Amino acid sequence: MSQSSPFFSIARAHAGAGGRAAAAALLLRHPVAQLPPRFHGLRYYPSAIVSPAKTLNSHLGLPRATISSFANADNGSSGQADATESEEEQNGESELSEMAKAFHISPRMAMSISVVIAFAALTVPLAMQSVVFHGTNKMKALAYLTLLSGFYMAWNIGANDVANAMGTSVGSGALTLRQAVLTAAVLEFSGAFLMGTHVTSTMQKGILVASVFQGKDSLLFAGLLSSLAAAGTWLQVASSYGWPVSTTHCIVGAMVGFGIVFGGVNAVFWSSLARVSSSWVISPLMGAAVSFIVYKGIRRFVYSAPNPGQAAAAAAPIAVFTGVTAISFAAFPLSKTFSIAILQALACGAIGAVIVNRVIQKQLGDLLSSEAEKIASADKANAQQVGFLSDIAGPTGAQLQIVYGVFGYMQVLSACFMSFAHGGNDVSNAIGPLAAALSILQGVASSAEIVIPTEVLAWGGFGIVAGLTMWGYRVIATIGKKITELTPTRGFAAEFAAASVVLFASKLGLPISATHTLVGAVMGVGFARGLNRVRAETVREIVASWLVTIPVGAVLSIFYTLLFTKILAYFM
């Protein structure tokens, strides 16, 4: 069954009666059969939808995350068959069948994908120079084990953290799950491979006192492997329950654990740990506050406008210009000279705004003109002033679909950027300890900075894509479906707010977590509609998982450190 998001099925409509019929057909989940015969050439596929009463209420209380948010496609008779099959397999459903239902593929295809990924994970390291470089069989075995540990951590980053970029897009319907995973897979790997840092430190995050481990390479090697294993284990547990947790906090907790084992309490910079932990409060609060303001602004200046569709089309280039300019200047400056960097960022923002404006006019221009004519001829006596915090009723009919189409498109753009940036940034959580461990085997760990080979960056990118493909739907379901009900406008407000907070807070040196910020941003758009619009049970589970991430990571790291120390005594 082929699927597509409704926001990518909008075609230019002809004027007149045909245009009005095409506008009516833009309503979500309406089949193309409603168009007159001359419009039957337009391609339209209904998006996968969720029945909140059935799906959320029946699954929020379960101890494990399921794919119910994506399994109930609105596909006519086949949808009834899927529902019957779902009821029959509700108890004892296997991991592969969940993956198959999430992506609407056969269990055999899901099995084939899993087998190919597992085979590649076990065999590719054998051909990498990081393994071939070592002469003795023992050193090759250690290098192979190290690469597998890094892959395991990267796999779990993909399974959990990629929901930061794509969860809201899937929840709002701007992208189907399959589209989101395929898009994120390409962009995450590209970001990790092209933008991932090529230099790392043996003591990442400034958590451990480096002098404590000088001259103790074998112990440091065991600790680095333990960090990868411990952080990966907790991420896997969290992903199985659909909890979005911070991968940075996982690796920090794991490093604290092995630091305490080898160096005692004096091996840890506790002030740095307290600073990292403060992001539990700072990140969600900032995300919620900014998303609340952004969404209220959309409702005030777009929903309450005389022509909401035209207001959305006008706001889109402004938002893109602002976002692209800020991102180009703060995250990817093209020049070290301030004035030149500002001009280049403004140029990038202007180019982005022009492109978005032309796409919107091409896709929705005729429909916008038709609606403008209707509004121009309508009575404007009912126009009234509304406050910023007023409860404003949204547009309906074709106007609503124009607004959703515009913001759905912008949401996809922001999700693509976040996915690319995430691959370049968070791959270091897996590759940093991996590269440090490999450098110890190669005898160059004494350097403060370690060069990361290109093949190791690619290896981390592959691990992220593999985890996203096999388990990513679990946390995406939580972010997109189980915190609050999302639409393209709400999803855009959450993503735009989260990206803005992470970008500027990082530049200002504030402790911030992208995962916590996005969850807070999603809660913020829910609070903007009323306190009862946020599901308290889901929020409680997520916050509890945040609070235990660093302690659990430390405890698991202590266990793995003691275990690996005994095992590595045979090799080193």
TrEMBL record:
<feature type="transmembrane region" description="Helical">
    <location>
        <begin position="488"/>
        <end position="506"/>
    </location>
</feature>
<dbReference type="Pfam" id="PF01384">
    <property type="entry name" value="PHO4"/>
</dbReference>
<dbReference type="GO" id="GO:0016020">
    <property type="term" value="C:membrane"/>
</dbReference>
<feature type="transmembrane region" description="Helical">
    <location>
        <begin position="543"/>
        <end position="571"/>
    </location>
</feature>
<feature type="transmembrane region" description="Helical">
    <location>
        <begin position="279"/>
        <end position="298"/>
    </location>
</feature>
<comment type="function">
    <text>Sodium-phosphate symporter.</text>
</comment>
<feature type="transmembrane region" description="Helical">
    <location>
        <begin position="109"/>
        <end position="129"/>
    </location>
</feature>
<feature type="region of interest" description="Disordered">
    <location>
        <begin position="71"/>
        <end position="96"/>
    </location>
</feature>
<keyword id="KW-1133">Transmembrane helix</keyword>
<feature type="compositionally biased region" description="Acidic residues">
    <location>
        <begin position="84"/>
        <end position="96"/>
    </location>
</feature>
<feature type="transmembrane region" description="Helical">
    <location>
        <begin position="250"/>
        <end position="273"/>
    </location>
</feature>
<feature type="transmembrane region" description="Helical">
    <location>
        <begin position="310"/>
        <end position="332"/>
    </location>
</feature>
<dbReference type="GO" id="GO:0035435">
    <property type="term" value="P:phosphate ion transmembrane transport"/>
</dbReference>
<feature type="transmembrane region" description="Helical">
    <location>
        <begin position="338"/>
        <end position="360"/>
    </location>
</feature>
<feature type="transmembrane region" description="Helical">
    <location>
        <begin position="180"/>
        <end position="199"/>
    </location>
</feature>
<dbReference type="InterPro" id="IPR001204">
    <property type="entry name" value="Phos_transporter"/>
</dbReference>
<feature type="compositionally biased region" description="Polar residues">
    <location>
        <begin position="71"/>
        <end position="83"/>
    </location>
</feature>
<feature type="transmembrane region" description="Helical">
    <location>
        <begin position="219"/>
        <end position="238"/>
    </location>
</feature>
<keyword id="KW-0813">Transport</keyword>
<dbReference type="GO" id="GO:0005315">
    <property type="term" value="F:phosphate transmembrane transporter activity"/>
</dbReference>
<feature type="transmembrane region" description="Helical">
    <location>
        <begin position="141"/>
        <end position="159"/>
    </location>
</feature>
<keyword id="KW-0472">Membrane</keyword>
<protein>
    <recommendedName>
        <fullName>Phosphate transporter</fullName>
    </recommendedName>
</protein>
<comment type="similarity">
    <text>Belongs to the inorganic phosphate transporter (PiT) (TC 2.A.20) family.</text>
</comment>
<keyword id="KW-0592">Phosphate transport</keyword>
<feature type="transmembrane region" description="Helical">
    <location>
        <begin position="402"/>
        <end position="421"/>
    </location>
</feature>
<keyword id="KW-0812">Transmembrane</keyword>
<feature type="transmembrane region" description="Helical">
    <location>
        <begin position="456"/>
        <end position="476"/>
    </location>
</feature>
